[in-house]
């Protein structure tokens, strides 16, 4: 087992900068050595806060450099394919932020490439940043449902609200590909099954979204075993970060993300925006701080041990395939089947929907 993993972070916008702070300050057995961003001023400024960390404008230089053992990718989704494949070619473990890529075909190319690495070396190198699997509340919910005492899981009801979105180009499609994709992974994680169809409904939008943006959206997933998942995604709620999940099973229901769960309080307009006996988290960095820490620590530990953990390339592909169907449904309003390759046609067996250890 290596003593310390030397990590490079690619893309240092909102999420990348957050990962830089945790790698530099809170993650054991990791050494942050380099950051890369085409915005070289941003990269240099961030690196200047950390002794011994260098910056570059060239992501591929960082990925292939000898001083980097493993890579965190927090660049935009449309460059993930090139950068993940570069990590695989260099033999470097990569924690790639969600979404794995922007369409099914490119995600499948990554699955195939990672399977080839696994066949040659005995371990895959890609972990996808679906951090909710590491959130203590989601992990507990998964273990309660998988434990079987409540019988079969019948329904999930998900709510996912952002106060606003920082990017003015955050269009209707990004609500499916960037936001709803978390609910896709939650559904797969909690049911332990694939999503087989998706329908995206478009309510009359809030006047506070950018012109032409359909926000909120309601998406319905049908699971392979017949379960149904309802999802509200609302990225201009004006309040704060609200992520809730209620599971309905044969002999009971479980809800996480409510004030009574103790983690934080939710928002009710009657007591004033953003308050109801407590404070609504501002955004995902606050709500999921522990989940990100556990995710990155588990990844570093797996890199040191030469193993793998958490959401796989297959999980990233399966989620992207649902997003791809979701985009078609957003356009048509119809229920659209999810087109997923048979995992048995791939070189190794799929290891989807595994609980993080
Ligand atoms: N897991 C989560 O909860 C979560 C939260 C936020 C964002 N994300 C994901 O993290 C990624 C980044 O999102 P963000 O909100 O930080 O975006 P952002 O726009 O704030 O930052 C993106 C950064 O990437 C840089 N960049 C652009 N092209 C690049 C390239 N070719 N190589 C390297 N860097 C490049 C940009 O200059 C910018 O600094 C996305 O995949 C997003 O979906 C995940
Ligand atoms: O990229 C972000 C991120 O994934 C957040 O977790 C989600 O709440 C946002 O809606 C999305 O835009």
From TrEMBL:
Q: Which GO terms describe its biological process?
A: inositol catabolic process
Molecular function GO terms recorded: inositol 2-dehydrogenase (NAD+) activity; nucleotide binding
The UniProt record lists the EC number as 1.1.1.18
Q: Which Pfam families match?
A: GFO_IDH_MocA (PF01408), GFO_IDH_MocA_C3 (PF22725)
Catalytic activity of the protein: myo-inositol + NAD(+) = scyllo-inosose + NADH + H(+)
Supply the alphabetized keyword list: NAD, Oxidoreductase
- Organism superkingdom: Bacteria
Q: Which residues form the Gfo/Idh/MocA-like oxidoreductase N-terminal domain?
A: 5-116
GFO/IDH/MocA-like oxidoreductase domain location is: 138-254
Describe the subunit structure: Homotetramer.
Q: What does this protein do?
A: Involved in the oxidation of myo-inositol (MI) to 2-keto-myo-inositol (2KMI or 2-inosose).
**Can you name this protein?**
Inositol 2-dehydrogenase
């Amino acid at each position: 087992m290596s003593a310390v993993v030397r990590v490079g972070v690619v893309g240092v916008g909102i999420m990348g900068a957050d990962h830089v702070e945790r790698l530099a300050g809170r993650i054991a057995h990791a050494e942050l050595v380099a950051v890369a961003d085409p915005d070289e001023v941003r990269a240099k400024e961030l690196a200047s806060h950390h002794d011994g960390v260098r910056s570059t404008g060239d992501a591929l230089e960082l990925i292939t450099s000898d001083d980097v053992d493993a890579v965190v990718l927090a660049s935009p989704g449309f460059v993930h394919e090139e950068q993940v494949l570069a990590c695989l070619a260099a033999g470097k473990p990569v924690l790639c932020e969600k979404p794995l890529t922007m369409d099914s075909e490119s995600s499948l190319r990554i699955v195939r490439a990672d399977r080839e690495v696994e066949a040659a070396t005995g371990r895959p190198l890609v972990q996808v940043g679906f951090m909710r699997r590491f959130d203590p509340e989601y992990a507990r919910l998964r273990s309660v449902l998988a434990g079987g005492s409540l019988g079969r899981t019948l329904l999930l009801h998900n709510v996912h609200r952002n106060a606003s979105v920082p990017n003015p180009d955050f269009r209707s499609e990004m609500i499916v590909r960037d936001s709803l994709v978390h609910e896709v992974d939650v559904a797969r994680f909690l049911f332990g099954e694939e999503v087989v169809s998706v329908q995206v409904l478009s309510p009359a939008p809030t006047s506070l979204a950018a012109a032409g943006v359909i926000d909120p959206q309601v998406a319905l997933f049908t699971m392979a075993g017949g379960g149904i998942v309802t999802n509200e995604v609302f990225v201009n709620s004006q309040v704060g970060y609200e992520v809730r999940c209620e599971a309905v099973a044969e002999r009971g229901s479980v809800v996480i993300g409510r004030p009574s769960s103790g983690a934080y309080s939710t928002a009710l307009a009657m007591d004033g925006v953003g308050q109801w006996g407590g404070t609504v988290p501002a955004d995902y960095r606050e709500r999921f701080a522990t989940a990100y820490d556990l995710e990155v620590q588990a990844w570093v530990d797996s890199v040191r041990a030469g193993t793998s953990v958490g959401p796989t390339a297959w999980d990233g592909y399966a989620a992207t395939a649902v997003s791809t169907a979701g985009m078609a449904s957003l356009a048509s309003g119809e229920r659209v089947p999810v087109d997923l390759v048979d995992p048995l046609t791939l070189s190794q067996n799929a290891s989807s929907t595994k609980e993080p250890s």
